[in-house]
User: Which sequence fits this backbone?
């Protein structure tokens, strides 16, 4: 923690929490066992970000594409979600964390949606870390839903096509008002984005780690922030 420079923190960290299934398989267990064991890693990541003073943390929890998994796994994840949100909200609230959800909430089972809405309402006035849970989310979905809103605004005459710019567009993305992602971490060893925050990660520093999500601890998050602080972010410019 002492090696981290607090005036060069990523403002927005996004995580692709991958590797739960392999973690379970290597123990001869069902995939859901891996998802259950990923919760401690979520808790540690949230705590580390809150303690450091990171503004926004966006966790890829369930993608649009994940609906295509076997029903048993999808149902297991949804049940786990209902239980975990209920269990974790008091702790989040105590830590001044503001819970939010991004993604197609209408696609979620009623109980998961209601629990999430309750948690969002309980924590809505908190002023610390903003925790975005990406559920039934994909980057393309986000871009499409923003485009639909823009198209309606143009159709109704509220705005002209010429008024559409990056600023207007990003205001309609589900992560608004979070700034763009500074650091994108993927666990589980694969080197891909899997349709995550496509627009928002345009200039993110990417960090791919071999550690499987259930093994991810606070120390990994701190190491990731340290690695981020060694990166030379040029944003297309030169230094001299
Ligand atoms: C990530 O772990 C969690 C979700 C996608 C819900 P996986 O379930 O994808 O685990 P692996 O990649 O198969 O090990
Ligand atoms: C990405 O992991 C989605 C989440 C972590 C929620 P996946 O395991 O679904 O992605 P792929 O299949 O490796 O691209
Ligand atoms: Mg995976």
Assistant:
């Amino acid at each position: 923690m002492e090696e981290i420079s607090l005036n060069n923190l990523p403002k927005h960290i996004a995580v692709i929490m991958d590797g739960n299934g392999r973690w379970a398989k290597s123990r001869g267990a069902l995939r859901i066992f891996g998802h259950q064991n990923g919760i401690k890693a979520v808790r540690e990541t949230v705590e580390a970000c809150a303690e450091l003073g990171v503004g926004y943390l966006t966790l890829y929890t369930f993608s649009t594409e994940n609906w295509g998994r076997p029903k048993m796994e999808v149902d297991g994840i949804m049940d786990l979600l209902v239980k975990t949100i209920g269990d974790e909200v008091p702790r989040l609230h105590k830590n001044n964390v503001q819970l939010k959800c991004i993604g197609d909430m209408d696609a979620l089972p009623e109980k998961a949606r209601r629990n999430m809405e309750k948690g969002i309402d309980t924590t809505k006035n908190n002023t610390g870390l903003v925790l975005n849970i990406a559920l039934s989310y994909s980057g393309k979905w986000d871009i499409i839903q923003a485009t639909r809103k823009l198209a309606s605004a143009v159709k109704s005459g509220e705005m002209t096509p010429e008024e559409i710019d990056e600023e207007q567009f990003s205001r309609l993305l589900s992560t608004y008002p979070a700034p763009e992602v500074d650091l994108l971490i993927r666990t589980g060893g694969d080197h891909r984005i899997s349709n995550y925050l496509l627009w928002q990660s345009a200039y993110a520093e990417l960090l791919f780690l071999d550690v499987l999500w259930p093994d991810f601890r606070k120390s990994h998050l701190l190491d990731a922030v340290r690695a981020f602080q060694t990166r030379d972010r040029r944003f297309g410019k030169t230094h001299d």
